[in-house]
Design goal:
This protein is of the alpha+beta class. The protein contains nine helices and 24 strands. A hairpin with a 4-residue loop joins strand 22 and strand 23 (about 460-465).
Length: about 475
């Protein structure tokens, strides 16, 4: 039975101005090892449907996991009635949905080997070998390996005539080595982020070599010095570190629902308000932030969003100027935009779709420049790799970031390793301090799989990226 078509027909008969249904099955597998002990394995399947109805400028939403005609009919009517009641207390004239047409299409994450076809035993054996390699080093006293695989199979239909079949998946392996001596403990983590790929990616990694490097760098951090004083220094940041920085200081501030204050009571608002569009100097002229939900391997790449809007590519920041936002069919018209950029996404079938960060990356530099040349051109600075701690205020202005491994640069060379380095800055000081970005040969991506947002909370995913970049005159110091 075609439950999607049935739901749409019922919504039309009730007089909905618009309606859609998202039938979704989410399969998740997690495996967790500590040292050589298997602590947890789990595989879950969440399957059901969510129905949105738009009536008189307001939304209604209901969900169910019972696939019967009477259950579908009941769920559509519940969503319709919620929309009618919501319209009684709407603000002003209520919401308007941006124009969109219907599509009949399909999308599937390109992959060769389905990670769910690989047995748990095979995965655990691989993970144990990695942890054994880490523990071969005397100073490594604790290891952790977490592997997550997730697949979403979705059927979307709407009163616009859309009928979409979408399948996406990702893999996210993370392992950490912790080195310990009498005075301190330090950790180093391998985390390339989630990748929208098949198991062939894991098979292509030299995990033994990566594990050896991870252990050696954890021990190096243990014995490294600290910066002590905080002062203005030059920073060189690698792409994997920049992923978190841009997520927090560019991605979230340019979600239009946050700009409009819809997240104010939970996760804050944004300084990047609509009157700044086309005028505000977000960064130096070298800074171009591209939103690209067509990015190959991107975690937000799915063909269409949960409004049924096709994936697109556009500039959030162009030549340093705030250019546009990530928008949905409901948020775009509020600032006079005719079309959505397709940023509406939900986590599970029972979640209402919300405005999400797209795949977002810092465009590489146009002139040929290697990280080695960038370091050689830096007299006194700090080089930071990979992600660490972070903190940012409720307006997304002032922030503080750490990292995973640090080097001091003196007279154009990486000299001693450091630990416990933090830097603090603000928008727009930070992005306006960019004076060099390496070229496209050094572009790398990092997939975020756990972006928390919404009430009730949802877990979103998107991919960030960039090439190694230099930031001048930033406050950098050592934590205690």
């Amino acid at each position: 039975m075609n439950y999607a078509l049935m739901a749409i027909d019922i919504a039309r008969s009730l007089g909905a101005d618009y309606a859609d249904i998202r039938i979704q099955k989410t399969t998740t597998e997690q495996i967790y090892l500590r040292n050589l002990s298997l602590k947890n394995t789990s595989q879950s399947e969440i399957y059901g449907y969510g129905i949105r109805v738009f009536k008189n400028g307001a939304w209604g939403f209901a969900h169910n996991n019972v696939f019967r005609k009477d259950a579908v009919e009941k769920t559509v009517k519940e969503a319709f009635n919620i929309a009618k009641e919501s319209a009684r207390v709407k603000y002003g004239n209520g919401l308007t949905l941006a124009y969109e047409r219907g599509y009949i299409d399909s999308y599937k994450t390109p992959y060769k080997i389905d990670p769910f076809s690989i047995s748990i035993d095979q995965k655990v054996d691989l993970m144990i070998e990695v942890n054994k390699t880490l523990l071969n080093y005397d100073k490594i006293k604790r290891t952790m390996f977490l592997l997550e695989c997730k697949k979403d199979e979705k059927h979307f239909a709407s009163t616009l005539g859309s009928d979409l079949e979408i399948e996406t998946l990702y893999i996210n392996p993370i392992f950490t080595a912790t080195a310990v001596n009498a005075e301190d403990s330090q950790s180093r983590t391998f985390n390339d982020g989630g990748k929208a790929v098949g198991w062939e990616w894991i098979e292509g990694l030299d995990l033994k070599m990566i594990a050896e490097k991870t252990a050696e760098e954890a021990i190096m951090k243990l014995e490294a010095g600290s910066l002590k004083t905080e002062e203005r220094r030059t920073l060189i940041l690698d792409p994997m570190h920049l992923a978190l920085t841009m997520h927090e200081s560019v991605g979230h501030p340019t979600e239009l629902d946050r700009v409009l204050g819809w997240e104010a009571d939970f996760a804050g608002i944004s300084f990047a308000t609509p009157e700044k569009l086309g005028k505000y100097q977000y960064g130096s002229q070298l800074v171009n932030f591209v939103a690209n939900n067509t990015l190959e391997g991107g975690l937000a790449t799915a063909g269409y969003d949960d409004d049924g809007v096709p994936n697109q590519k556009w500039y959030i920041v162009k030549d340093g100027i705030l250019n546009e936002y990530g928008t949905t069919r409901a948020t775009a018209p509020i600032i006079g935009l005719e079309m959505s950029r397709g940023c509406n996404r939900a986590t599970h079938y029972y979640d209402f779709p919300i405005n999400r960060i797209p795949n977002l990356y810092l465009e590489p530099g146009k002139e040929e420049l290697t990280p080695q040349e960038l370091i050689a051109d830096t007299k006194d600075g700090i080089y930071i790799e990979d992600r660490g701690s972070f903190s940012i205020d409720q307006h997304r202005v002032n922030f503080q970031f750490g990292g995973d491994i640090f080097w001091e640069i003196k007279n154009g060379k990486k000299t001693r390793p450091l630990k416990k380095v933090i830097y603090r800055s603000n928008n727009p000081e930070f992005w306006n301090s960019v004076d060099a970005i390496c070229d496209k040969r050094f572009f790398r991506t990092f997939g975020v799989v756990n972006c928390g947002k919404g009430q009730p909370g949802q877990r979103g995913r998107m991919t960030h990226g960039g090439a190694t970049a230099r930031f001048r005159n930033i406050m950098v110091g050592g934590s205690k």
